[in-house]
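Deliverable D4.2, example record:
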Amino acid sequence: MSAAAGALLSMATAVHAQPQAASGASGTVGQGRVTARPVAPAVPVPPMPQSASIPHGASAPERGLPAMPVPMPAQPAPTASAASEAAAASAASAASAASAASAASAASEAQAPEVPLPPEPPEPNLAQRTGIPPAGAYAMRQNFAKEVDRRLTVPVADQQAYGRLLQHALDDDGHGDLANEFVVLVDRSANVQAIFIYFRAKAGDAWSMIGASPVSTGRPGTYDHFVTPLGVFQHVPGNMDFRAEGTLNEFKIRGYGARDMRIYDFGWAEGERGWGKGGKSPMRFQMHATDPEKLEPLLGMRHSKGCVRIPSTLNTFIDHYGILDAQYEARASEGESMWVLKATRKTTPWAGHYLVVVDTGRKTRPAWSPGPGKAVREHIPAGANTVD
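Output generated by the structure prediction step:
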């Protein structure tokens, strides 16, 4: 065997031996449920963001990093026949193997993701089981107005238009008859950047808006930044939520917001890469608060790595009333330990199951959804693009 072939075989063997995951650091991918799926080797792996504040307690499950591209799995070592063919390889082939070894080394920072969980049969909420009159659901508008400090005043015509858009999205996903529960809707359009809570009492009724707030969704153009995925996303305990520790990263930014803010985890989703040649990769899709002083003023413009950033008071509102917790409450009623649910919560009888993301593609900014002012944009803190 020539010296060049020997070097190639040694490099390929090194790739095979490279471990796939760092030790039990917070931010590793959840394990034990399903097998990993192969991914294209062209996707780079970013470093672990220091702002990922995942609880270290025994009750807090391990998980993948939010908005994280999938690492390249190590390649198997060559067989004897493959080694024989490698003897004829050129110096360029050896260089390619060295490059693959380097990429595999970077991939050791995180594991390949699990296969996305299949949809769960939605468990009926209390109102759907007992037929409670819907007056209390509509009255949630008053709670929203009192408790959420960053609100949007949406004209009735636009409220109705978004209600129809929500219905179209549910129709396309096979949930056209959904009713008697809250649904959260996000318009990721660069000229809107808004989140809405909707309700209707029965199928066939028009959807009614409960409240709306500004958000920040994925900003393309920067490495490790995805365009927020479109679709209907079920909120299930299989992708267990967790709570922010409120820790500061090296830029003194709390990426998940203040301590105890809830991170809503919707699992792995196909996200459009906003860097390089584009394409799609699995990304961890979450909805969460952000740094209340440094980044919350930026809500209303695309600024995240792909997740949906929401105001802190809206995070608390959705958490306290269990707006998306129908499936969590069903598990809790069966005796399972849903550690993320607070004992002081007042879960609504109309708890819902779904987050829906759409893109209206509006060419101009509506007056009811203003973006951050010039003064805020001119003072974006250093390192703001390093957190989700």
